[in-house]
Amino acid sequence: MRNRSILCLILLFIAAAMLASGCDKGNEDAGPAGANGSSLRGQEEVHAEPFEVTIRHTQVGESKKFRLAILKDVVRQTEADIPGLKIRLDGVDSEVNRKEKLRGEMAAGKPPDIFDVFGSPDSGIYAREGLMLDLTPILDELGLKHKIRGLEPYTHDGKVYGLPAGASIEGFFYNKAYFEEKGLHLPRTLDQLEQLAEFIKADGKIPFAQSSKEAWVPLMTTNNLWSYFAGPEITYGFRSGTAKWTDPEVVRAFEKHKGWVDKGYYMPGELAAEYTDMRNQIISGEAIMMMDGSWANSVFRDPDQAGDLIGKIGYFNMPPEAEGDPYIVMNDFNNGYGFSSSMADDPRKLQTVKRFIVNFWTEEMQLRGLKEDGVLPALVIDAERLADTVSDPLLQDIFNGVEQIDISYPAYDALVQTPVNEALGLGFQQMLSGAAEPGAMLEALQRTQQAANTELP
């Protein structure tokens, strides 16, 4: 200790008092930062060597600008918490990320450090390959295990491999001003919904905005229909083999959707339309209703995107077949973030994981996501505080929609295998174009399902 004290005195005169304090035995024994990250700001870390972490996100485009702003603020705070850290943001379209880029990176065993990931089934597939970081001990350490809702899609063999960014439901956005002008009322049954569509079509408007270039967009409607006709539990049965795509009530749902197409309830040529195009159909006044996820509400609350329609858009759940029947609505937590298992090999990167989680899953950020972007919180938040945050009428409609749900279900693509999902998308687009009939398309899909069921999950 005598030699070490002399060394400290020398450093004191040569460098500065700050560096001298770095030789103190207390600092010498300082461990890694705890959940509050304070020790990372310790003087021994001032000259930490730079290192980089990449975050792959899907907050691309005007409609996701608020979500991107929140992510950037989380990034700035995380960088401030950890000396030397530089986070590089890599923005990729959601479908391209899920179906192409991330899949290829996982196949090569080199995913980004932090990445946007679909909870089920994707996180389970990647976790089984040892490519995703087990967050279970981290959540225990941070005290968040019971404070984040919707962990089920990311939980595999009792371990958590990702975290939901928020929750969503799917239903109809509609032009309230048009409904009021025409004396229309919200539908309480599917028949009443079709009557509205007939009225709107006769009035020279498009009943339902739609864009089918990406098949998952129109399949939101069909998924809700087959969950009503055949029951929401049937989608679980496709993979287990207890249900078939050719079951009569499933076929009926696809025939119903095809019937709406044949009746002219959608814009001609919408099969080639991009996802953002259908929102423009509503904003332009061409279309009156639109089936979409609750996340779309931010578009209609942004003056730069919605223009004169600010305050004139409402929301309702797809109604059941008969009045008094339970409301069955898609409600899940499948969009979130995962972390590469390689992050565990570098203490500073592992600390970055913890700081990112601490900074993202806070009441402040989750409520900001709700208020600015309309994303329903994944963090458990007091109901009164939620109510105080939500004053916008459209958000109130969506919360009313959540409260109305009797039975919820996850989206179909969270339950079926990737080859089935891809075959369904292609076959469904062929059905919409008239190149295939619903029954024949579903028979082919069932063969794909049976083949997928013989393979490992």
TrEMBL record:
<dbReference type="Pfam" id="PF01547">
    <property type="entry name" value="SBP_bac_1"/>
</dbReference>
<dbReference type="InterPro" id="IPR006059">
    <property type="entry name" value="SBP"/>
</dbReference>
<feature type="signal peptide">
    <location>
        <begin position="1"/>
        <end position="20"/>
    </location>
</feature>
<protein>
    <recommendedName>
        <fullName>Extracellular solute-binding protein</fullName>
    </recommendedName>
</protein>
<keyword id="KW-0813">Transport</keyword>
<dbReference type="InterPro" id="IPR050490">
    <property type="entry name" value="Bact_solute-bd_prot1"/>
</dbReference>
<comment type="similarity">
    <text>Belongs to the bacterial solute-binding protein 1 family.</text>
</comment>
<keyword id="KW-0732">Signal</keyword>
